[in-house]
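re: ur question from yesterday

yeah so i grabbed the chain u mentioned. its 262 aa long if i counted rite. heres the sequnce exactly as i have it in my notes:
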Amino acid sequence: MITLTPVLLALAAALLFMAVVWAVHLGDEDASIVDPLWGPAIVLVGVVHALASGAELVGARLAILLLAGAWASRLAWHLARRHAKTGEDRRYRKMREARGARWWWQSLFVVFSLQAVLAWIVALPLMVGATGAGTLGLAGVLGVLVFLGGFFCEAIADGQLARFKARPENAGQVLDTGLWRYSRHPNYFGEMVVWWGLGLVALDLGHGASAWWALVGPATITFLLLKVSGVTLTEADIADRRPEYRVYVRRTSPLVPRPPRQ
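ran it thru and got these structure tokens back, copy pasting raw so excuse formatting
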């Protein structure tokens, strides 16, 4: 059940966690450190809320946190490996260069605190589910299956892209095989499906009207990936850097996998 004090404590935990990450980032001012740690911040919110609510973490309540933990661990590992190979993300580099000497303190708010608040909102399914019923119903089982489908879709897509970029001969080329033949962003599609699966699990476990808050998290992830940090940002200038991407766009679904147009 969603109650005010545990919710605020969970938000405070996320803000404190990201403040520590911000302090670490001051060593080299590379804000890319926030990306692999965003998933763990979401799980942290769910755990702190459950403990503050006095919920016993067993059965389905523990299961939803473990599912989210598996998602967060895989994504953190993937993003950390990518950062080790490619260095500072160009999005953060542009922000840092635009703010100059003000970056060191502004980044606390425009990057790290913002990520903490978003993690808190996205974690609503975990807050609902980890304080709900101890056993899954039919809808919850369906949610787990949806989660697993999204998890493997995202993991396979990330793996295919990483292997493609690792080959020097593919520099500047467009990946259009594997899952990327059917969707321009199969990893983002998998991410959305993961969170709608968790939302369905939480809705099944939740109590009364407060259970519907579980769907705010998946809706937020969907909006962010479609309109803010995902599809829109990725495709903002990619066609200028890779002209063949325009052909790829014409034949390939932007998100939901489907056979390519001829």
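noticed a couple things. The chain has a mean pLDDT of 94. also The chain is about 70% helix and 0% strand.
anyway ttyl
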